[in-house]
Specification:
heterodimer; A: alpha/beta; 2 domains; 6-stranded parallel sheet; 3-stranded antiparallel sheet; 15 strands; about 40% helix; B: alpha/beta; Rossmann fold; formyl-coa transferase, domain 3
Chain lengths: ~425, ~400
């Protein structure tokens, strides 16, 4: 879909996935690393816990479908090469602190003067300007700043983030969508622009509109282990099964109450509750609880009924039931469960990449969407440091072998 | 406000509902697309029944969750069990460039709105179907909400404390990932169509999109045999690293040190220079190993001040720190205000309300949130008369047949 488009990927560890998404869509993505390799190559975990610049799992995770070159952007000659590459590029993606590249003469203003059609994507913690633009960041910091983190974790302990960093992945996926909107505009106008993606604002989506509660005078949503607290209601999403845990939605109202009615009828048939429990008004139930027409203790008792029912079955048994009857129940998968899930196998989702040097096959998640006319292909494994230097600098940019050798000797590439 | 936007002229027929779908078309509306959102009166969008509700009014027009995901769209209510309503849809397909739907896989086919049927009417149509598990495969018909896809993907087993069963991510995690990839997919197909004239069908399994965010642990688990389980707030690259108590009820501050400089700045800010000489904390490895003792020391300091005070003291010294923001903090956050994150709109029923702005900024063609989300059926007359050219008799006839219910 993006064949013929060239992307220069200058990102640090914050922004790697954006270029990968454009690469998946067929763009020619050139990952530009400092001569010693991207900082992402030094991030744990390493393959088999043996450190090495070609063994970082983080690097492997977000650099497929890219070619790789090295370039020292701290030097004038390095920045000059970026300008030459940018003259013929369609997209630049960068994730430096605001203003860092502009100070080196390769900010949006500099490069758009050379190539007005350039779509220049900047991924930062808080955006290009504003009172927190220069704040120091990390995954945890961004989760905290976004308003999502306060909703995660157990109510008697501090909030907790996901044990695998997520913040900048949200920003990267947004950056790819934003870049394509800008590119679509360019097809009409011939003009590029700067795309400013702040992780803080991207992550707002992960708070499920609860950021709006204060300004609208609505109840605050509070965290609770395995569920959420809505006003006086403790709404569980994680329940015990005979052999582990399942997620189950047990909610009310004109839309969600229909599922609950169906589930409770089945629970009644199986002898876990009486007729009066079955026949409660599950559509109006939340309102009844909030107005006191139904005591909270009764809601707690009914949740106990559901808990007993779910505890009487294995995860697989309740998932089978869910599929047969349209109940909202699914097991909490481990990585092993995930890889064995017949759905992803049937859809040939998992992709493997043969890493001969390391003597192993890597397993990657497959395409993020299935396109009937232009399917996503995994054409390239992540590049090694400087793997495509000659191909790109000599073969495509037109440096002579002598110039190329000279730049390499002086540590520019 | 009349300036041209990137998607001006792009027409979207929107059968999205619940959480993962409507955000995609909301973004398209922000950048100029004309989006006609189809709703059923009988089977109301579940997000209309979920808060936050303006003034805690649980009327379906007061849901900020619905309002946030459907701002900028036109609303048409249809009873798709009626043939007259289905005929309107076919006219809208002729009008549209993109059809998006988020039902379980059998629904569109049952109405005769599957891709092959729509393509027969409009050969270059782009159609996006988004559902939990995808259109094919043994779990294709397993429908539900993002918490269920998050469970099946393994996200639940990545949030929690090592000594307890997993807490899980907040609410419906895959619904916060899938819309981003859905937007990418539709935009890529629009670009392809503009370049080649060819439309196509997109099958988005929300689980398959969300699993992109687990690439690292999946690679690691398969390559190195590592077993992933929740580790609270521990981190491989940062120590100290955690959420620390602050003065007030349920008030917390995040602190994360990666470099020696940040660590030094932290103990100096805490006025605890003796920590520099503590053999337990001399190296990164030591700080990581003795993180519980270290967390206790830091917690004693943070507990004595508000999270904002700690944030400011530490950020002024280059230490990554931030208040764990709740909805009130977000509302007052100077950075979110600077970025215009909250946008006032006027809703036909709920009156003055707020939505979040576009999640990103385009320098030359910034997003425009032109209107609030539609009240149920708010734009029936406009869509039928102005977009489809129906006359009054025909519209009255549709009302009489109950097609707009």
């Amino acid at each position: 879909m993006l064949s013929g488009c060239r992307v220069l990927d200058l990102t640090t560890e914050r922004g790697l996935m954006c270029g990968q998404i454009l690469g998946d869509l067929g763009a020619d993505v050139i990952k530009i690393e400092p001569p010693g390799g991207s900082s992402a190559r030094s991030l744990k975990p390493f393959f088999a816990d043996q450190p090495g610049l070609e063994r970082s799992v983080c690097w492997w995770a977000y650099n497929r479908n890219k070619r790789g070159v090295t370039l020292n952007l701290e030097t004038d000659e390095g920045r000059d090469l970026i300008r030459r590459l940018a003259a013929r590029a369609d997209f630049i993606i960068e994730s430096e602190n605001p203003g860092a590249l502009a100070r080196g003469g390769i900010g949006y203003g500099d490069l758009s003067a050379i190539n007005p059609a350039l779509v220049y994507v900047s991924i930062t913690p808080f955006g290009q300007d504003g009172p927190k633009a220069d704040y120091a960041d990390s995954d945890l910091i961004m989760m905290a700043a976004s308003g999502a983190l306060i909703l995660y974790g157990d109510e008697d302990r501090p909030p907790i983030r996901m044990s695998v960093p997520q913040a900048y992945l949200h920003a990267c996926a947004d950056a790819a969508g934003a870049a394509l909107i800008a590119y679509y505009d360019r097809l009409d106008t011939g003009l590029g622009q700067q795309v400013d993606v702040a992780a803080q604002e991207s992550l707002g989506l992960a708070a499920q509109s609860t950021l709006l509660a204060a300004t609208l005078g609505a109840d605050e949503t509070r965290r609770m282990a395995g569920g959420v607290k809505l006003g006086p209601l403790r709404v569980p999403l994680v329940w015990e099964a005979k052999d582990g845990l399942v997620s189950c939605v047990f909610l009310f109202g004109s839309a969600l109450g229909i599922f609950t009615r169906k589930l409770i009828s089945y629970i009644y048939e199986r002898g876990f509750c009486d007729q009066a429990t079955r026949d409660k008004d599950w559509i109006a139930y939340a309102d009844m609880l909030l107005t006191g027409r139904e005591p909270i203790e009764e809601y707690e008792r009914v949740k106990g009924v559901v808990a007993n029912f779910l505890r009487s079955m294995t995860k697989a048994e309740s998932f089978d039931l869910a599929r047969q009857h349209g109940f909202l129940i699914a097991p909490l998968a481990t990585t092993d469960d995930l890889l064995a899930n017949p759905q992803f196998i049937a859809r040939e989702y998992w992709q493997t990449s043969d890493e001969r040097e390391l003597g192993l096959k890597l397993t990657y998640p497959g395409p993020f969407a299935r396109f009937s006319a232009t399917p996503i292909e995994f054409k390239r494994r992540p590049p090694r440091i400087g793997e495509h230097n000659r191909e790109i600098y000599v073969g495509e940019l037109g440096l002579s072998e002598r110039e190329f050798g000279d730049l390499a000797r002086r540590g520019i590439i | 406000m009349a300036s041209r936007l990137p998607l001006s002229g792009v027409k979207v027929l929107d059968f999205m509902w619940v959480l993962a779908g409507p955000g995609i078309t909301r973004s398209m509306a922000d950048y100029g697309a004309a989006v006609v959102r189809i709703e059923s009166v009988e089977r109301v969008d579940p997000t209309r029944t979920v808060g936050p509700f303006k003034d805690n009014n649980t009327n379906s027009e007061y849901s900020a969750l619905f309002g946030n995901n459907s701002a900028g769209k036109l609303g048409l209510s249809l009873d798709l069990t009626k043939p007259e309503a289905r005929a309107i849809v076919l006219d809208l397909v002729r009008w549209a460039d993109v059809v998006c739907e988020a039902f379980s896989p059998k629904a569109m086919r049952a109405w005769g709105f599957d891709y092959e049927s729509l393509r027969a009417i409009k050969p270059d149509i782009i159609m996006l179907s988004t559902c939990l598990m995808g259109q094919t495969g043994p779990l294709a018909r397993f429908a539900g909400f993002g918490n269920l896809a998050a469970a099946l993907c393994g996200f639940y087993n990545l949030v929690g404390w090592p000594d307890r069963s997993p807490s899980g991510p907040f609410s419906a995690y895959t619904d916060y990932i899938a819309p981003r990839f859905g937007l990418v997919a539709v935009m890529a197909a629009l670009i392809h169509r503009k370049r080649t004239g060819q439309g196509q069908y997109i099958d988005q399994a929300q689980a398959e999109s969300a699993l992109q965010f687990l690439t690292l642990p999946i690679l690691d688990a398969v390559a190195s045999g590592r077993k992933y389980s929740p580790v609270g707030n521990d981190d491989l690259e940062h120590a100290p690293h955690g959420i620390y108590p602050a003065a007030g009820d349920d008030r917390w501050v995040a602190i994360a040190c990666r470099t020696e400089d940040q660590w030094r700045a932290l103990y100096l800010a805490m006025d605890r220079p003796q920590l520099a000489d503590d053999p337990r904390f001399k190296t990164f490895t030591g700080r990581h190993e003795h993180r519980e003792e270290l967390d206790r020391v830091i917690g004693e300091w943070t507990r004595a001040r508000t999270p904002l005070e700690t944030e400011r003291i530490l950020q002024a010294r280059g230490v990554p720190a931030h208040t764990v923001q709740n909805t009130f903090d977000a509302n007052d956050d100077p950075q979110l205000r600077h970025n215009g994150h909250f946008v006032r709109v006027d809703h036909a029923v709920a009156g003055e309300t707020f939505v979040e702005n576009s999640r990103f900024r385009l320098s030359r063609t910034p997003a425009q949130v032109k209107r609030a989300s539609p009240a149920l059926g708010q734009d029936n007359q406009y869509v039928l008369e102005q977009l489809l050219g129906y006359n009054d008799d025909r519209i009255s006839d549709l009302v009489a047949h109950g097609a707009l219910g």
